[in-house]
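Training component of the fellowship. As part of building independent skills, the fellow (R.M.) carried out the full modelling exercise for a liganded target. The chosen ligand was adenosine-5'-triphosphate. The inputs are recorded below so that the supervisory panel can assess the work.
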Amino acid sequence: MVENKYGKRMLKKARAQGWLSVETKAKFERIIQERQTDSHEELAEKLLKHQILTETQIEQLKGELKEETILHMEVTTRNSIFHVKDLHKSYKTPEGEFHALKGINLTIYQGEILGVLGFSGSGKSTLLNILGLLTTPDPVGEIYYNGTTYRELKPKQRDALRNKQFGFIFQESHLLAHLNAIENVALPLRLQNIPESECLERSKEMLRNFMTQGEKDKEKVFFSKKPAQLSGGQKQRLAAARAMVHQPQVIFADEPTGNLDFDTGQMVMDILLKAAREKDATVILVTHNPSQARRYCNRFVWMENGLLKGHLSTGMESTMRLIKQLSGKDVKIK
Ligand SMILES: Nc1ncnc2c1ncn2[C@@H]1O[C@H](COP(=O)(O)OP(=O)(O)OP(=O)(O)O)[C@@H](O)[C@H]1O
Ligand SMILES: [Mg+2]
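Fellow's submitted model of the complex:
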C-alpha cells in the first residue's frame, strides 16, 4: 500500500502545534489510512469538513510543507562539499582542557548558504575556523572536503587549499593598515603569485561591485585610501570584496555585519551573497541574528555547548519554533 506521506507530514505538524485532540488525531489518522490516493486538495477539504483543522491552520501547514519541499529539494539535489564526522576540539586553559566542540556531525552542500546560529560561546567560530583550516581539531573524527580528508593534507596542501578555495570575512575587517584599499582586496591573489597588474585589475573589478555610485564616481580616490581613512561599512565592504576576489569555492563569514548598522549590513550581505550565488560558491554564515539568517540562508544549524542541537532544514516559522524549543528562549523575527 502506498503511504500518504503528505498527509503524515501534515499530521505531524498539526500535532506539534498542539492543534489536535485525541479524537481529532484519530480522525486524521483514519483519513490518511483510508484514502491512499487523495490529492492535497481533497485532504484539505476532508480535514475542514470533519472539523479537524480550521482553514487558517490548513493554509499555514500547506505553506510550511511547500517551503520545506522546495528547500529540501534545493539542498539535497546538490553534491556535498563538506562531510564532518565526530569533530572535537579542546583548548588548553589554565584550568585544564576546555572541550569546545564535543562531536559535531554535519554535511554541507555545494552552493548552499548555511546559517550557523547559537549563543555566544557555543562553538560557532571554532567550527568555522576548523573547516576553514585556520585551526586544527583534536585528532579524532574526520573532515572531508570534496572527498579528501583534512587529516591527510600536508602543510603546503593545506595552505594551497585555504588560499585558493576559501574566502574569509570576519566581524572585524582585518585589513592591513599599511596597504591601500585595492591592495588589501588583492591580497588573496597575491598569495597565489598572480602577476601584479592582473591582481590589481581583478581587485578593482570585484571591489566595484561593493561600491556606491558616489564612490565609483571618484574611484581612484577610493582605491587609494588606507583603512584608517575608511568608515566601518566601507572597511567591511573591502573585506567582502577580498573574500570574493579569488572566486573561492567556500566563503566563511563569521558575523560579517555584526559591527554595522542594519542598512549597511544588509548592503554588504546582499552583494556578497549575490556574488556567491553567481559563482555557485558555498557560504557558511555565522550569525546571532535570526532575521539575517531568515533572509539569506537555505538551511540552519543550531549550536549549543559544543554540539549541534538541530539541523533545521525546515520552513522559517517552524525553524524559529524549533530554535525556541531547543534554546528555551524566544527568538524575535524582524
Ligand atoms: N583559544 C582559546 N582558548 C581557550 N578557550 C577558547 C579559545 N577559543 C575559544 N574558546 C572557548 O571555546 C568556546 C567556544 O568559543 P567560540 O569562539 O567558538 O564561540 P562562538 O559560538 O563563536 O561565540 P561568539 O558568538 O561569542 O562569537 C568558548 O567557551 C570560548 O571561551
Ligand atoms: Mg564567534
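The panel noted the following from the submitted structure. Residues 81-327 form a domain with the Rossmann fold fold (CATH 3.40.50.300). The chain has a mean pLDDT of 86.
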